[in-house]
Amino acid sequence: MKYPIWLTLEYRKSYKKTLCYTKSITSEKDLIDFINRLFIDQSMIISFQVNGKVYSVEKLTNIFEKAQREATL
Length: 73
What we know:
This protein has helices at residues 28-38, 57-71, and strands at 5-12, 18-25, 45-50, 53-54. The chain is built from two helices and four strands, in the order ββαββα. Helix 1 packs across helix 2 (57-71). It is globular, with a radius of gyration of 12 Å. The chain has one domain (5-71). The protein is of the alpha+beta class and 73 residues long. Strands 2-1-3-4 form a four-stranded antiparallel β-sheet, with helices on one face.
């Protein structure tokens, strides 16, 4: 993926609460740090778009696996 990108992320925080963020991401490390700061996992994602296009499940899984590995370091 070429950076910078615009990320639009919608996720379920709890049964009644849904949050949405739009953020400029400048690198893969920035994306992973952002995911880890939100304390979310892939099962919470409602919508994950990069530059206005839906991100594939395979790529999303890859990013979340990297985020999980980095969070445990």
